Amino acid sequence: MKKKKFNPNVSRRQVLKAGLYAGAGMMLPWRFLPAKAFAAPAAVGLSDPALQPKFATAVPDALAPSFKWVPKRGKIKVAVGPSVQQAGLVDPVTATPLNTPVFGYGLPNLGYTWPGRTFEVRSNEPLEVKWENKLLDPLGAFLPHLLPVDTSLHWAYSLMGYTQFTIANAGIPIVSHLHGGHSDFQYDGNPEFFFSPGWGVKGPQWVEKKYIYQNDQPCFNLCYHDHALGITRLNVYAGMAGFYFVRDDFDTGLPGNPLDLPAWPYEKAYAIQDRMFRDTGDLFYPAFPGDPYYDDFITGEGAVLPPDIFPGGGPTALAEFFGDHMVVNGVIWPFENVEPRNYRLHLLNGTDSRFMAIQFFEVPAGATDFSAAIQQLNFTVIGSDQGLASAPTPVDTLLSEPGSRYDIIFDFKSVTPGNRVIMKNIGGDEPFGGDIPGPQVFGETDRIMAFDVVLPLDAAVSDVSPTGINFGPVVPAPTRLRKVALFEGMDEFGRLQPLLGTAEPATNFAGNPINWPNTPEYINAGLVGQMEGSIAWHSPTTENPALGSTEEWEIWNVTGDAHPVHLHLVNFEIIGR
């Protein structure tokens, strides 16, 4: 193939036209976009991250016993409802704490929190959860969404038979998904399983109110979050997410476990997210002209948004989002006081689009940046999305993609007592193309949280580090090779549209061709014969492995940046990149 030269001023639209329609054509890497791309300083009316305190609020403890759900006889009721909490934001002039309205998980008598309370269950012990939608005001009226909803998308109330519903007349739809869980289909939280407050409207795939999680998997750090069709990003952004831990006879979560893993209070869980806020403390999500990223993904790409559908130019979904405030467990730039010992840290990347490259640096006490950094510190990765690793791996940088969970051991004994450790992100404020980008755009998202080594060592508790971690999967030889692909196209308004599909003619598990439906909808679009290329949501299924089989998948990425890929019900072993 002849090498191509890229014009840094060309738009993604031009590249898409030249490449996507030609098949697996080359996409323009983000690093070739104009220098002004993704430069999004704080707009008028928005919180300026440079004026917000750093490491001034203690991080909420997601594994504290008082913050865990307590089922009764293997059953529990959990609802989504409105709440107001303090995320560490202050008025820059008066230093008065600001309140942030959220939609969180909880119960009326417990309150609703962002993140939701933590589930901790035993492997192979089922749990029944009755999920409820309490997004109502004190008078029982349907609440508006906290964030702008783009109803031009394929979403819950755009489906056939649902177009008469709106958030105003039916309420906000939700459905909970256990991310990484081995859940039967009716309990998986499929986007079309959504339901409104009081189950007044139920999605076309809705089955029942109570979800049964068999927990038939070994020790695991999972998370639960909303998954409603077309508004998952908004519902999660509003606060609908929390931790879910599966414990077993090895990783018991208790002191003295067979693997010598640190246990609470030396085991911590951090949901790392990025957000934008209004200067009132309210959550902000861009969707209108003048908002951050609007020019990057709408105006700059030449999208045409009809005013009858988008009055005032919105609200419109944007292809990607990068917040300018880093948030951990619902608090901006928090701190944790620690002892000089080993800690087990569970890191969840709960961001919308941000890949993070995580490092740790020792700095002097009270420092809020890296100008006087003393040393970079190594740490040990002991697990990830599929549980404990085959062996501990010492690293100095951890690449974390949206939705990922990593399990690490950090030894604070190497830090001078009284000093601080800052968790650093060198991933950049831009779509990730595979390489670590350059300087930060916002200037504040290079730091995530701080650890102050100020607590005395409790000598009564053994300082343990893990041993005997050898839980690597035994994977049978694959029976077939399958090639799937990630594409980008344009929707009917000219907006960037991520798409999935195949990089080869589609066949079923028996090897027989899978053809496009012989209907006018497909024939008029020129889609005839064997399926291949980008495929729409309602098109026939092309990935249908036989039960119990092992397949090797090649994932062809012909888009402009890297993407995490998450499948429900199955696990993967990465054998190459």
What does the model show?
The chain has 577 residues and is mostly beta strands. The chain folds into 3 domains: 1-35 and 473-577, no CATH class; 45-58 and 265-285 and 321-471, Cupredoxins -  blue copper proteins (Immunoglobulin-like); 62-252, Cupredoxins -  blue copper proteins (Immunoglobulin-like, Sandwich). It is 5% helix and 29% strand. The protein has 5 helices and 27 strands. Strands 10, 11, 12, 13, 15, 18, 19 and 21 form an 8-stranded mixed sheet that branches. Strands 14, 16, 17, 20, 22 and 23 form a 6-stranded mixed sheet that branches. The protein starts with 11 loop residues before the first helix and ends in a 20-residue tail after the last strand. The relative contact order is 0.13.
Query: Spans of 5+ residues with little confidence (pLDDT < 50)?
Result: 1-40
Estimate what percentage of residues fall within beta strands.
25-35%
The class by helix and strand makeup works out as mainly beta
Radius of gyration: 24 Å
User: What general form does the structure show?
Assistant: globular
The main β sheet shows up as: 8 strands, mixed
Number of strands: 27
Oligomer state equals single chain
CATH class of the largest domain: Mainly Beta
CATH homologous superfamily placement of the largest domain: Cupredoxins -  blue copper proteins
Total domains, how many? Answer: 3
CATH topology of the largest domain: Immunoglobulin-like
Specify the helix fraction band: under 10%
Which CATH architecture of the largest domain? Sandwich
Annotation field: number of helices: 5
Q: Roughly how many Å apart are the termini?
A: 21 Å
